Amino acid sequence: MPYFDAASSAPLHPVARQALQASLDEGWADPARLYREGRRAALLLDAARETAAEAVGCRLDELVFTSSGTRAVHSGIAGVLSGRRRVGSHLVLSAVEHSSVFHSAAALEAAGGSFTEVPVDRTGAVDPSAYDRALRPDTALACLQSANHEVGTEQPVVETAGICAEAGVPLLVDAAQSLGWGPVPGRWSLLTASAHKWGGPAGVGLLAVRKGVRFAPQGPVDERESGRAAGFENIPAIVAAAASLRAVRAEAEAEAERLRALVNRIRTAVPELVPDVEVVGDPVRRLPHLVTFSCLYVDGETVLHELDRAGFSVSSGSSCTSSTLTPSHVLKAMGVLTEGNIRVSLPARTTEEEVGRFLDVLPGVVAEVRERLGAPAAPAPSAEPRASLVVDALGRRCPIPVIELAKVIGEVPVGGTVTVLSDDEAARLDIPAWCTMREQEYVGEEPADRGSAYVVRRLL
Amino acid sequence: MPYFDAASSAPLHPVARQALQASLDEGWADPARLYREGRRAALLLDAARETAAEAVGCRLDELVFTSSGTRAVHSGIAGVLSGRRRVGSHLVLSAVEHSSVFHSAAALEAAGGSFTEVPVDRTGAVDPSAYDRALRPDTALACLQSANHEVGTEQPVVETAGICAEAGVPLLVDAAQSLGWGPVPGRWSLLTASAHKWGGPAGVGLLAVRKGVRFAPQGPVDERESGRAAGFENIPAIVAAAASLRAVRAEAEAEAERLRALVNRIRTAVPELVPDVEVVGDPVRRLPHLVTFSCLYVDGETVLHELDRAGFSVSSGSSCTSSTLTPSHVLKAMGVLTEGNIRVSLPARTTEEEVGRFLDVLPGVVAEVRERLGAPAAPAPSAEPRASLVVDALGRRCPIPVIELAKVIGEVPVGGTVTVLSDDEAARLDIPAWCTMREQEYVGEEPADRGSAYVVRRLL
């Protein structure tokens, strides 16, 4: 039963399990105590910090362990914003950061600060010069992920870090998706990561803060982890996190090459096997194990359920799989199709045979969902073409508005228009994305009594 | 090698280990995901919440898991202070709370709020009516531990919760030391606890917030744990925490009776075996497994080292064992001797034989430390008594000032005075405590060029 959602959480690495079990007996006591159980715990903690600092590429005293990657991001951002509050309270971040970065930005805004979102191109990458333009005299901090968690695109961290360093603004790099594959190069100032993404246990995040960065921990603090992460240290989990990071690094190069080949196979095969698919993310500058594609006329939740029934665990950035009814902010920022979105992220040791089975199963699953939703195989030519048509999809959710559009586009002559009325948030993204994929013209959006009117001109 | 510091951290309970290992295979995925690994993780999380809520005595939707007991305290206090900020920003807490509560109070003060410390008596207990007096119209929250972590005294939670409920002020009960022994009765509004104190793993705290309490989580939040504890849930540890809580509860009554008898034995034997000892904390209303005593003319760090060499792991609230050079705020608030302080807290399954060995070893260790420090066995009578004497103990640390006092008290006649010059923070507590123990009169403290002058009158 292949699990293809490593970007969400990786199964525990055998080395992590071993280290965890071994340190349950040695690492449960308070490392601040003077007796032997405490000294043993402190030794384990020191050794784990040494291993992790080496993997990160920082000094021992620059690295603290937090209770999660999310906590590392929250604490890292809050600490710099406070430490540099005399400079100002402006934050720069890319439009495709992890939600924990956006939650920190929202908290900043609620407290009277402001932030600038740097846009991305259609592959999900930022342009370093856009960071240069976004930096202001009152910018306290800039944030950029090392690689995107939804589409796998690697960000130009080295260039962006250089620009930030020149401007005297610290750059926080969220390396949650990439740290297992290798250290983050460049002149970054802070780095965050999460152990369960590389096969370590849950409950451990990393926060590295380079010497010289003005940093004032926020909220109540205590004497643990240099005053940067309050609360009793979870030493067995920390030991397991560090040991597994070293282990995955040792096999990273070979495993990356292997998984990259498997992902390339998916990238090539899916558009051949499934009609009306858009593979998203940078085809070259990307994480080795992750590929994302979107399928027209499919709702994400149903396709996930069907794939799950067929034994495959994947995730989706479609609005139809989320309780908020808004599609992934990453896909939205990229301007790509959000409906029928599927993210495949292969854990270490995924086999060629498992990927082969996935490619066997996928076309049938998508075809079945499309059939159930009444999606058109090809636009039906009409006997009496009308110059323009209005389709009422009010109250219908993704992917129905796009399906309704596709059904009637053949009923207007080339040059004619179809107007889709929709109050579904995803339509705003998916109707233009459909036009790009089908080489039709997206004329624009007009206000309507309810929802919006999306106008499309038939070009072929 | 007996470990007698369960109040700091308990060794992992066998049930916790078993549950942790079992759920490493089942609980590593994201419980918010739709595929089978996610659903399995969600089921484990739900079941753990049910078990923990039953043990706490609250509703399922009132309980969230945090990354530590400290985090539960910080988040609980911050959430109520924000939720009730229209009422005011005044906090009431006892003078003997855990440091995490004091750190929250300090953060409140830094943000412009204020707090009132409710004093304790010589046993460490608060008087509920003092809470009544401390509550103000602008009091947003009151905090009271269920039992003290350093001396074991149980607090009058039921009465205090009643008073707070009448006044319409929520009471947060820090139950870190007692939850393994039983639920906290009374009309409390919030409750916090820490799994590694009852033999669960590190990395899990509990925060219960009763329905109806105005609560606004602070800092960046996400959708996890009802928006009250951001970051990926550590499900294997949560499962282990809940399973071990149920297990320790099942054996709590019998184990409490057994450990209470062992603690009674220590309480009785230590003053008989070791001269000049004060056993502190309430002799009856107390945790079953914890006893604390202080030995005159002994420094805490040396005695801890010697006990460690003899195979016993205990802790101390003496200033001489802490890097801050200030004695425990708990002992200070109680007004008891802080020098030579030893806390013994027995983990489950401690044997009578282990306690017996401790009582065999202790007198020799204390005597040796005293001899090394030149402590007087009895005040040496002087040939030529002088009406008053000044002892210069400037620059000398605890327990030297008290030792110097004890050495010369016999050199003044009954009615005469000894003035001790000291710049050690502990002297302010320990000289009056010595007077109480030796039935001498503590006249008072006077300012001096350096440090303070402590005046003692010989009565016998």
How would you concisely characterize the structure shown here?
Two copies of one chain form a homodimer. With 460 residues, chain A is α/β, with parallel strands linked by helices. The first copy, chain A, has 13 helices and 14 strands.
Provide an overview of this structure.
Chains A, B: One of its GO terms (molecular function) is transaminase activity. Chains A, B: Residues 391-415 form the UPF0033 domain. Chains A, B: Belongs to the class-V pyridoxal-phosphate-dependent aminotransferase family. NifS/IscS subfamily. The structure is a homodimer of 460-residue chains. Chain A is an alpha/beta fold. The first copy, chain A, folds into three domains: 14-250, Aspartate Aminotransferase, domain 2; 252-373, Aspartate Aminotransferase, domain 1, CATH 3.90.1150.10; 388-457, TusA-like domain (Translation Initiation Factor IF3, 2-Layer Sandwich). Chain A has 13 helices and 14 strands. A seven-stranded mixed sheet of chain A has the order 1-7-6-5-4-2-3, sandwiched between helices. A four-stranded mixed sheet of chain A has the order 11-12-14-13, covered by helices on one side. In chain A, strands 8-9-10 form a three-stranded antiparallel sheet. In chain A, α2 (36-56) runs parallel beside α7 and α5 runs parallel beside α6. The longest helix of chain A is centred in the middle third of the chain and has 22 residues, at 252-273. Chain A is globular. The two termini of chain A are 43 Å apart. The mean pLDDT of chain A is 94. Chains A and B meet through α1, α2, α3, α4 and α7 of A and α1, α2, α3, α4 and α7 of B.
